Amino acid sequence: MAFATQCIDDDSLHEECGVFGIWNVPDAAVVTALGLHSLQHRGQEATGIVCYDRGKFHSHRALGLVGDAYSDPRTMAGLPGRNAIGHNRYATTGETILRNVQPLYADFEFGGFAVAHNGNLTNAHVLHKQLVRRGCLFQSTTDSEVFVHLIAISLYSTVEDRLIDALKQVIGAYSLVALSNDALIGVRDPLGVRPLILGRVPGHEQGGWVLASETCALDIVGADFVRDVDPGEIVVIDNAGVRSIKPFRPTRERFCVFEYIYFARPDSVMEGMPVYSARKAIGAELARESPVSADVIVPVPDSGVPAAMGYAVESGIPFELGIIRNHYVGRTFIEPTDQIRNLGVKLKHSANRPVLEGKRVILVDDSIVRGTTSKKIVEMVRNAGAAEVHMRISSPPTTHSCFYGIDTPEKEKLMAHQHSVAEMAALIGVDSLAFISIDGLYRALGKLGRDAAAPHYCDACFTGDYPIELPDAGINTERQLSLLAAAK
Known about the structure:
The chain has 488 residues and is of the alpha+beta class. It has 2 domains: 18-256, Glutamine Phosphoribosylpyrophosphate, subunit 1, domain 1, CATH 3.60.20; 274-444, Rossmann fold. The chain has 18 helices and 23 strands. The protein has a 7-stranded antiparallel sheet with strand order 3-2-4-1-10-9-11. A 6-stranded antiparallel sheet has the order 5-6-7-8-12-13. It has a 4-stranded parallel sheet with strand order 17-20-21-22, sandwiched between helices. Strand 5 and strand 6 (111-121) form a beta hairpin. Helix 5 (145-153) packs across helix 6 (159-167) and helix 9 crosses helix 10 (305-315). The N and C termini lie far apart (58 Å).
């Protein structure tokens, strides 16, 4: 399948990746494909599955969507076994080429080992240089291969000890699933920035265990939620059951707050909180913080819908679908000229004129990145006859880049980094613009507010407070500066 090289609408924070693993279930690869389908929102560029059967590993990797990659029955027939892991990719490092598609696989002296990774290693380039100097030959340009080489050169004997040795050398935000001859393994970074959950398929005494990025992947395969994998925990699943290893010192967790705002599927539960409920609560808090007289609340679909519902209930202003989304537009099949890019918003969204004409409209969206899409949507709503257009955003201004697995522009290209809210309102063309405050976001998620000394979430894209060191970026985080101060 051929795709145009540039998405018609790239003014958004792109998804991370999705991982899925299953142990001791018939047709494990088929079940994994179903799980990956439910995690499609986390990555649409490529997908892969590695399975294990009777002493042999089998794999299939492809560019494009899950439904296309595994639609051929011959593909699934070539993936036998009861144990498998899978990955959906949105590239945060490396090109979108087949050799970068995960899971990555390698043969070691202890047997085969496959790994699928969600997140970003912030010292991957540093480690890459060290490994190359030691003679390691990299086959891909993705930072996930660093795990493989660190395991290969480890002097420990067991798979678990080699993995722990590797994990203690990497820095970053990650969750990963791995498959060896004897076990399915799940790992979460010490701060728990990236999500990973454990589930169980009923009726399997010796197995039926699932690891996945989100709970929505459990529903489609008929599994029950057991628990979140803890920050810094290694979960080992084998024929003896489930074991937990915690090789890191306990620290305050910093779960990615943007999972609640945008990334996770609305029907998932993250860290014990239903995402749909969280988004409605965020919208309600936004209405309390930034009310405005209007006739209708209109979400920018689809991610703005729950927040707009919460805003409407709290404000008492009617909720209406004033913008209709065409769900069958992803990447254009037409050469992406400037004219086509300008038409991109109209291909993806259309105005519902009877709802908008003559009305004072509040548009609710999840974020503003570069601002180009917001400007075009506002123009579309005004052209449909809206008397006033106000915009409310269910996240604080995105002022900093993410280095932890979310594909964001450089901060100089972020509208909120370059302009004040008033300037942004003028550039977008709205009568008023308001974002939820960082304290309001925390309140909506059940906290008293953001404790600057010990924030509960990773919110670096809003605050610039990076909780994990950034060696590759050459940035001194607040944590690094505090360590330097303590050492003096």
